[in-house]
Amino acid sequence: MSELRQRQPAAGSGRQQNTDADADTAPRREPRRTDDDDPFISVLDIIRVFVVLVIASCGLSYYMTNTDGSVHLTPVELSLYNGTDPSLPIYLAVNGSIFDVSANPMIYGPGGSYNFFAGRDATRAFVTGCFKEDLTTDVGGVEEMFLPVEDVEDEQITMAERTLRHERELMLAREQIEKTVLRWQNFFRNHKKYFEVGLVEDDGTVDPEKGKRVLCEGAKKQRPKRSEMTEEE
C-alpha cells in the first residue's frame, strides 16, 4: 500500500504569511500636517504678525526719539501730531518745548476751540492772544505790546532822559515776553493731564517774515498809555 505523503510547507512561507497579516493589522501612520497645510490663519501666525508690529513700532519710536527718551521733531514732523491721525498723540509746542495734550481732544483735537495750536509752535500767539495772525514762533516786534503809547503832550523831559527811559522800558518789555512764555510753558508742564515730551528741532527752514511782522490789532489795544502810568512804572 503506497503511502500518501503530505506536502510540507516550504520553509519560511508561514513566516511570510504572519508578516503579511501583521502588516495588514498594524495601524497606518498618518502623514504629519504642518502649519502650511492649514488654509486658515493659525494662532502662531497672529503672534508672528504681532511681534513684527511691535518691533516696527519700537524702531520708529527709536528713530523719532532721542537717547534719553524725549521726542525730537522738526516743524514738519510736528505738524503730523495735530489730531487728524487717530493713531498719533496730539502735540503742541511753546518756545520749542513739545507738550502732549492728547488727554483733551475736545479742545485740541479736530473741531476743538484750540485745535489751531495743535501740531505747531505758536509762541507768538500765546503772548499776543492773536490766534489767527500769530501762529508762529517769531516774537520779533512783540515788545511794542508792552511799551506805553506816548499820549502825553509837552512832557517835561529831555531827549537823553527820553532815550534812557525807552531803553529801560524796552528791556522790561522783553522780560515781560519771557515771563509770559514761561508762564504758558509751566501751565502745560505742571498740568495734571498734559506733560512735556521733547523739543522742536531746527530743520534749517528760513522764515521770510521773521522780524518783519507787525503787532496785531488785538495786541495794540492792550498797550498801556503813558498818561495812565505812574512815575514808578
Automatic annotation (TrEMBL):
Residue ranges with Basic and acidic residues bias: 25-35, 207-233
Top-level taxon in the UniProt lineage: Eukaryota
Region feature (Disordered): 1-36, 206-233
Coiled-coil annotated spans: none
GO cellular component: endomembrane system; membrane
Signal sequence annotation: none
Span of domain Cytochrome b5 heme-binding: 73-153
Gene3D superfamilies xref list: Cytochrome b5-like heme/steroid binding domain
SMART domains: Cyt-b5 (SM01117)
Family: Belongs to the cytochrome b5 family. MAPR subfamily.
Protein name listed in UniProt: Cytochrome b5 heme-binding domain-containing protein
Taxonomic source organism: Penicillium atrosanguineum
